[in-house]
Design goal:
This protein is of the alpha/beta class. The protein is 48% helix and 19% strand. The chain has 9 helices and 10 strands. The structure holds cytidine-5'-monophosphate (C5P).
């Protein structure tokens, strides 16, 4: 069967990664979580004192970019690839609300995007890949055979993210999570370089009222129509 490239873009916390992982497993494809790559660079910037609530030393981050190596390693038990920063597994560290509150600022820096987009294109060059993010169908793989654009109301997305963080044992409140989701939407859609937008040929899926199974079945149908 023909291997294709599946690009899944959309707003924060629309469940892109959940469905992308399921899909990759089902099809025997590689899954690439590009948000994790931007989060890894953000974590580096935080650890090196380059970004805080009142300061972001963009120049220093750009200067240090060659020292930042983001990679993935497949974890058989989990069934997906975890993200590493300079050889250290940081899968858990990058999912905090703290990293979420800075990541869109880091992702707006063109040099950061350039480095990560190049790596993403290499990771997907042989097709047979499900990649999720904000600019996959518009910039990373404009020729992807199937492009999906996921949406849901900000409130529904914030509830999902809030539950995820609470289940992990993080102490967060719903209002902060909602605010973060809305702030990231704003920065992601208004930045100059590769803003989040639906590619002309993407299929929009509003999953506000879809169960995970309904969503998966709908997407699989689209995949089968494309392959
Ligand atoms: O997908 P996730 O929510 O983990 O992404 C974190 C952030 O990384 C997004 O809010 C966005 O600012 C940035 N991002 C991006 N381009 C991508 C993937 C993520 O700008 N392809």
């Amino acid at each position: 069967m023909n291997k294709i490239t599946i690009a899944i873009d959309g707003f924060s916390s629309t469940g892109k990664s959940t469905v992308a992982k399921q899909l990759a497993k089902h099809l025997g494809y590689v899954y690439v979580d590009t948000g994790a790559m931007y989060r890894a660079v953000t974590f580096y910037a935080m650890e090196h004192g380059l970004i805080s609530d009142d300061d972001f030393n963009i120049e220093a981050l750009v200067y240090q970019l060659p020292n930042i190596e983001v990679s993935f390693k497949f974890n058989k038990t989990l069934g997906f690839a975890e993200v590493y920063l300079n050889g250290i597994n940081i899968e858990k560290e990058i999912r905090t609300l703290n990293v979420s509150s800075f990541v869109s600022k880091v992702a707006a820096v063109s040099q950061v995007r350039h480095k990560l987009v190049e790596q993403q294109q290499k990771l997907g060059k042989d097709k047979g890949v499900v990649m999720d993010g904000r600019d996959i169908g518009t910039v990373v793989f404009p020729d992807a055979e199937l492009k999906l654009f996921m949406t849901a109301s900000a409130e529904k997305r914030a509830i999902r993210r809030y539950k995820e963080l609470i289940d992990r044992g993080d102490e967060v409140n719903y209002e902060d999570v909602l605010q973060n989701v809305q702030e990231r939407d704003h920065i992601d859609t208004t930045r100059k370089d590769s803003p989040l937008k639906k590619a002309k040929d993407a299929i929009e899926i509003d999953n506000s009222d879809l169960s995970l199974k309904e969503q998966f079945d709908k997407i699989l149908e689209l995949v089968n129509m494309t392959i």
